[in-house]
Amino acid sequence: MRENDDEFDVKLGRIGNRKAGRAASYLRRVRQEASKAGASARAGSSFTGGRIGRGQAQGAVLAGRGRSKGQRRVVIKARIVRIKSGDLGAVRAHLRYVQRDGVTREGEPGELYDASSDRADGKSFTERSAGDRHQFRFIVAPEDSAELADLKPFVRDLMGQMEQDLGTRLDWVAADHFNTGHPHTHIVLRGNDGNGHDLVIARDYIAHGFRARAAELITRELGPETEIEVARKLQQEITAERFTRLDRSILRDAPNGVLELGALSGREPAWQTARIGRLRTLERTGLAEESEPGRWRIDAELEAKLRRMGERGDIIKTMHRELAAAGVARASGNYAIFDSEQTENRIVGRVIGEGFSDELSERRYVVIDGIDGRSHYAEIGILAVNEEPPMRNSIVELRSRPAEPRDVDRTIAGIAAGQQGVYSDHLHHRFDPQASVEYVASHARRLEALRGERLVDRLPDGTWKVGEDYLDKVLRYETLNRSRNPVRVSVLSWQRLDDLPQALGATWLDRQLLARTPETLGPVGMGAEVETALRTRRQWLLEQGLARDEDGQVRYARDLVRTLERRELAKVALDISARTGLERAEVKSGDSISGVYRRMLTLNSGRFALIERSHDFALVPWRPVLERARGQLVTGSVGGEGISWSIGIKRGLGR
């Protein structure tokens, strides 16, 4: 969270459809609103759109007023999120996030409240949002919020003032968070006004007016800042390893990279003293130089470099906190930040911490105790609505996500190239007669995902119109995905490393023992723990008769992984049979299976789906797509590479 209130970011959600027609219709709506506001949208005019919508007058006045002496600061972040028609999954997910565990002063889950109740109904709020086109999300953080015993009265007064400024009733819920050492409030505001119309708020009001109102209210509540408070806060900024108000004022008075202190003698003594102290700090870091007494040369990239320093400092603090919570001791020299820009970057290790690097956009990070003996911080981006974050203590592999078409895309493009931009299962089998049903189905699943982004069309006869520019569209899609999810996370073991050496089932350790090129292990930390676990697992396999020692070399049973997996599934099946009275049905390659998907089972051998029928059940490899069909009839075709699923009658998953 930024600590200086002179900057503000409004983050707009995606319009949704990237096609030119929808873009044009959106532009028409903007021009219509501009016309209502009396602004001109003619080409070449000074129209910026900043005053379209409710609160334009108040926003303009408050934006030009500036910060008065003694006024307390409030940091506000805002985001406007587009709601896809009928899809409330993202709304539910965000409300779950703001109510997550451990955010209150007592470490309890967050509690929603609204204008009249300390316990608002999140489900009802979500249902009311069903027809909304968009939603506003705010984080409000008064600099001195720790001095408030309760944030609720302040937030209610702020939203009441916003209603007056916008001239309409507002429907909102909020939750207070105290888990960061800097208390703040998440506010979710429906994009619908009191008359049932789309709520359009002037950008000037969001960027300036809302913060100014918050600053007025917190100053009224706590009183103006005293000179002692001002001096204390400035003193903290002198040595801060981040971009501060002092840096901003230095850059403002050094437009050409040169600061003349003599020309600024009229400034307040406290500020002038603090700025000189800040310049000395910048001099020690090589970001400023006193070329002659009173004349300073400022690094042209001062702001960018200080922001990077601040980000790195925040990351180091996060790693310290997560490592301490996990009881892991590691020297700071063994910290590493995962660089997703390096396409070959890869790490393997244990998840010891995860959370949000940006609460507003809900971008996530993980901290990994690597098998190389180092601790790694990686930003993994934004999870999908039904995607779960990596579990603590699970063993994962992190890889940089490449921004390029996949192999399936190149195959689709190659087949469509000779068919006027059309692809189908039939054309694929004609192109490659040896292709399995499951392999061809993987291409159809890829096209279903792209159809959700309106990049391809499925024709009435079941064929796909992908177009001759298919690879160009996919490249843009993957580039966008990379910005949202820069890292691919693959779970190697859902179980803790301590539980694997004597576990029933096919574990990650077994795959390491059989690998032609096993992972390189560091001499300390998790690397040393894995080495010990491998030795213990090897001895266990010898005792189970699944390995033998020949002249000092361990030989493993043929088809070891499959044997271990069958043993674990047989034990789990017995437990299920004892509870349900149903018998287990074996499923082999080439079979078809139909039944109700009940739930997912996390085993040592991986994740499996429980498919229940009237007289028996089956345990088959699980896929995330099945979660959409929990409690529903599913049909699967078992192939060499896996199972191709469909839901209901003649209806594919995701369609």
Which properties best describe this structure?
655 residues, alpha+beta, Arc Repressor Mutant, subunit A, 6 domains, six-stranded mixed beta sheet, 17 helices, 25 strands, 22% strand
Fold and architecture overview:
By secondary structure, the chain is α+β, with helices and mostly antiparallel strands. The chain folds into 6 domains: 10-222, no CATH class; 227-300, Arc Repressor Mutant, subunit A, CATH 1.10.10; 305-401, no CATH class; 407-484, Arc Repressor Mutant, subunit A; 495-557, no CATH class; 562-647, no CATH class. The protein has 17 helices and 25 strands. The strands form 6 sheets. The protein has a 6-stranded mixed sheet. A hairpin with a 2-residue loop joins strand 21 (592-603) and strand 22. Helix 2 (56-65) packs across helix 6 (203-222), helix 7 (227-238) runs parallel beside helix 9 and helix 15 (508-514) crosses helix 16 (526-543). The two termini are 40 Å apart.
| Largest beta-sheet details | 6 strands, mixed
Oligomer: single chain
Average pLDDT, rounded to a whole number, is 86
Helix content: 25-40%
Largest beta sheet: what is the strand line-up? Answer: 9-12-11-10-13-17
The radius of gyration over CA amounts to: 29 Å
Secondary structure category: alpha+beta
What does the overall shape look like? globular
* Beta-strand share of residues: 15-25%
Helix segment tally? 17
Query: How many structural domains?
Result: 6
Number of strands: 25
Structure at a glance:
The protein is α+β, with helices and mostly antiparallel strands and 655 residues long.
